[in-house]
């Protein structure tokens, strides 16, 4: 098979990898994207064009996209094309213990306090991914479905790294970006180790119809068994997340929809109202951090570099922040006539993103430990913490801005 040479070779066409393909193509670089999941599988579960009259059901996997990520998606020309019918803005974020009552509001951040029209949007992962793929242009070559067999950093062509695929033979890039998710094959092939653990808890995710019309608040109730979260979706719908011990979560996920709805009603706060379960599934909770973010010409982004407890909905937001910094540094190197895989730039990318990612991962762990603990001392600490943070103006403003991606 003939050799294929590109400036940028991206393995993994998910949200983070596809966004980088678009950014580099805007600069006129030749980009290859290798994706193992056939396009049709992504498309089948997706809304198609605007002419379609019936909206397909909302997919189970959704993400809270913060303002900083929205800016990145605007810069790469994607945000403007997202179907409005699949986007739900949220204007408030609330955390509380017990049931939410007027006297027990816990901690609430509002867009108004931060002088913003909203704090972020909830959107389906596959809607975002498909919109990105639709924007792929003549500078991007998509190899899909493709199975990576091996990686060579001692390529016969100097200045390139190559992967061999079962379907398309050898594909080479001056910079190879591994955006292939938490189980990254490329991270392993590049010999980059990682550390982390599986949390003892898992989470059930359910897409539901709600009694109430479209809402614009996302909330989390903290219980001794784990948090219960509500993310509003377009229309009278929501995505619910129930954290609990693994056997319990697995058992819940297997219940018939009507029975699960009853369990949810009994275990979520009354403010949820009546619901009907449309879809359900469960996810393990993993913390993983790569020991380094680059090796030779291979650089890691998104979940391939770090995966974080989804408690605060920051995973893909961190991935987009990785992508934005990497693109900025690589395009700067290009303008200065330097190698696209210049070791100094990759080192700078690693150092800067490692710091930000570690901070968020550790903050989430601290939060998770504090709020899932049954120890009386920690229970008291979290009550005091919620009250103190709720009252402390500057601290509260800082946390709210950070959560909305307006800082950090
Ligand atoms: C329950 C849950 C809720 C979440 N909620 C939020 C949220 O609200 N907000 C938020 O920011 N984040 C959230 N996250 C995290 C978010 O989903 C991830 O951070 C995000 O999907 C990572 O994107 P990615 O593109 O790096 O990786 P992925 O989404 O994993 O994409 C990787 C891509 O690479 C492809 N691939 C994998 N291996 C190969 C290979 N060997 N060759 C070729 N292609 C390959 C895959 O098919 C996929 O397309 C949540 C996660 C979970 C589990």
Structure description:
By secondary structure, the chain is of the alpha+beta class. The protein has a domain at 4-49 and 56-72 and 125-195 and 287-363: 3-Layer(bba) Sandwich (FAD/NAD(P)-binding domain). The protein contains eleven helices and 19 strands. Strands 1, 2, 8, 9, 10, 11, 17 and 18 form an eight-stranded mixed β-sheet that branches. The protein has an eight-stranded mixed β-sheet with strand order 6-5-13-14-15-12-16-19. Helix 1 packs parallel to helix 4 (125-134) and helix 8 packs antiparallel against helix 9 (343-372). It starts with a strand and ends in a 5-residue tail after the last helix. The mean pLDDT is 89. Flavin-adenine dinucleotide (FAD) binds next to helix 1, strand 3, strand 12 and helix 8.
